[in-house]
Amino acid sequence: MVVGDVTTGTDVLIIGAGPGGYVAAIRAEQLDLDVTLVEKDAYGGTCLNHGCIPSKALISAADVAYDAGHGEHMGIDADPAVDLSGMIDWKNEVVSGLTGGVEKLCKANGVNLVEGRAEFDGGNTVRVAHSGEGQGSESIEFEHAVIATGSRPVELPGLEFDGENVIDSKGALALDSVPAELVVVGAGYIGMELSTVFAKLGADVTVVEALDGALPGYEDDVARVVKSRAEEIGVDFHFGEAAQGWDESGDGLTLRTENDEGEISEFGAEKVLVAVGREPVTDTLSLDALGLEPDEKGFLVTDEYARTEVEDVFAVGDVAGEPMLAHKGSKEGQVAAEVIAGEPAALDYQAIPAAVFTDPEIGTVGLTEAEAEEEGFEPVAGQMPMRASGRALTLDEPDGFVRIVADRSSGFVLGAQVVAPEASETIAELGLAVEMGATVEDVGATIHTHPTLGEAVMEAAENAQEKAIHTLNR
Ligand code: FAD
Ligand code: NAD
Q1: What is the pLDDT of residues 246-269, one digit of tens each?
Q2: Is 470 considered catalytic here?
Q3: Which of 231, 244, 241, 233 is nearest to 208 (CA)?
Q4: Staple 170 to which of 7, 50, 307, 391, CB 3.0 to 4.6 Å?
Q5: DSSP code at position 158
Q6: Whole-prediction pTM
Q7: Is the pLDDT of residue 5 over 80?
Q8: pLDDT, tens digit, 9 for 90 and up, residues 363-403
Q9: Is 205 strand, coil or helix?
């Protein structure tokens, strides 16, 4: 069908169908608003198509292959053959099941789905250019707009993505064979997750990182556990090396880096994966037509109601600032929809968990001990090493710990840091504790099933009260 130059109207116009946008759309429909959701590429956004879901699928598949091939000490002798294209096919099935589900859910809730690229066009109007030749465009007038256009990978000068030699995470999650030598630039979330995947799949992986350690933003003792395990798996780290550019060499390439002293190093590779952060997508929306200006990093400034400086325009997800995490975007989407519908909703960022799906995983929520001190608390921390957890040993994954940070006088749980198998799951219980204002006494008194990883949470809470049974109290 060729869509002509028609104008329609809607209560809520949402741009971008990622975890921020589609959640806002469904919630707004539940609240009886008329919703139009515009998406230029694929339902589910970065998270479902090129981010969270595909990366976690490949992490799981790489674990199966690696664990099967490294089970001699458990009496398992196997040499699994890895067919990356088969793995990618399976990952694509997982992705299409979920993205199809998002589309169906939106339709079943009554969301009007429009395919195309939206741009503000003055007043309360967006213009949507439909993809494909001759598909035309349409104008949509809105009462309220929600900008949920997400983020894209930062491109380093001299290391522009060409999809062949220099790839981004989207490219890395769609390779059809395991590169013999992979250099990863950046030891942040993506660098650490994907270097582990490719090392487990048999690539010779080198990570170069500009700073002096992996996973900046996480405490040293947390990041150290993950880095040590990655080294055991075969990842070679070079810190204090900023990537500068690359040259062709033989049938591969050479990555150039520079350290603080100005010394140049070279690293040979078949491919270079650049993962040096993501930046918000706000420059393609003609925001000036709304009188809206992003901050110097391109993010839209929002208040506790997810509202921008323009009364009727909201921003959620990666465009609305750090942390650029799917669940943070979804919560913002939900709150934006409720505020638009006149519900008494507001954002509370105190208990947003974060997880890094490395080996072992990291899960954090709330404050660290140092942050608690900075905020004027007198913190007490309780810790339980995973090597004392029966379940961690039976999983053959004894690295890491659970740490719970509480206020010494009241006992309120202020935060937690978990580096352990399934830390991304374990952190949910600790998030609930922070959210509900539970004390370490509440958490320690909660009977946990034996043998489970969750017992380590109970033990850490008891350790904070100097009454842990399975670790020495400090
Ligand atoms: P997006 O998911 O980016 O969606 C934005 C959508 O807007 C896109 O579909 C885009 O096509 C559309 N769009 C943009 N401009 C327009 C326009 N003008 N018109 C119409 N449509 C438009 N987060 C986690 O919490 N956990 C994880 O495990 C995790 N893993 C990740 C792994 C990788 C490799 C990457 C890259 C990211 C990961 N993230 C993870 C981050 C997560 O993907 C993002 O935080 C999340 O997708 C942000 O959601 P969003 O709705 O703000 O934007
Ligand atoms: P990041 O910010 O986590 O890490 C980027 C790293 O690159 C930093 O350590 C930085 O010091 C380094 N770096 C920057 N310039 C460099 C250079 N020239 N040479 C060498 N190193 C350099 O960014 P990312 O890993 O690209 O991930 C982007 C975002 O995606 C994350 O911040 C997160 O919000 C999201 N994400 C989340 C998850 C998760 O929740 N599990 C997983 C993947 C991505």
Answers
A1: 999 988 899 999 999 999 999 999
A2: no
A3: 241
A4: 50
A5: T
A6: 0.97
A7: no
A8: 999 999 999 999 999 999 999 999 999 999 999 999 999 99
A9: strand
The domains found in the chain, sorted by start residue, are 6-152+280-340 (3.50.50.60), 166-276 (3.50.50.60), 354-464 (3.30.390.30)
Nearest to 45 by CA among 9, 10, 20, 12: 20
Ligand 1 contacts CB of residue 15 (under 6 A): yes
Average pLDDT value for the chain: 96
Number of other CB atoms surrounding residue 263 within 10 Å: 10
Q: Which of 49, 189, 265 to mutate to test the pocket of ligand 2 (most atoms within 8 A of CB)?
A: 189
Distance CA(294)–CA(147), nearest Å, equals: 12
The residue-averaged pLDDT of 162-168 equals 97
Q: Cβ(19) to ligand 1 under 6 A?
A: yes
Q: And the tokens for 112?
A: 């009007």
Distance 212 CA to ligand 1 centre (A): 28
Tokens 């992490």 label which residue?
Answer: 59
Q: Which ligand is nearest to the CA of 49?
A: 1
* For ligand 1, atom 47: residue with the closest CA: 47
Provide the percentage of residues in the chain whose pLDDT is more than 90. Answer: 96
Residue 17 CB–ligand 2 contact under 6 Å: no
Share of the chain above pLDDT 70, in %: 98
Which of 27, 49, 50, 52 for mutating ligand 1's site (highest number of atoms within 8 Å of CB)? 52
Whether 321 lines ligand 2, by a CB cut-off of 6 Å, is no
State how beta strands 236-239 and 242-249 pair: unpaired
Any atom of ligand 2 within 6 Å of the Cβ of 189: yes
Residue 259, sorted as left (phi over 0), alpha (psi -120 to 50) or beta, turns out to be: beta
Tokens of 384: 């339980």
- Between the CA of residue 37 and those of 51, 350, 360, 456, what are the distances in Å? 21, 29, 38, 43
Ligand 1 center from residue 39 Cα (angstroms) = 12
Q: Please pick, among 50, 130, 327, 450, the residue that the annotation labels catalytic.
A: 450
Q: Under DSSP, is residue 74 helix (H, G, I), strand (E, B) or coil?
A: helix
**Does residue 318 register a pLDDT over 70?**
yes
For 326, the token pair is 């799917």
Tell me the average pLDDT across 159-172: 97
Residues 209-219 pLDDT 10s: 999 999 999 99
* Ligand 2 contact, 35 CB (< 6 A): no
The CB of 186 under 6 Å from ligand 2? The reply is yes
Nearest CA to ligand 1 atom 29: 52
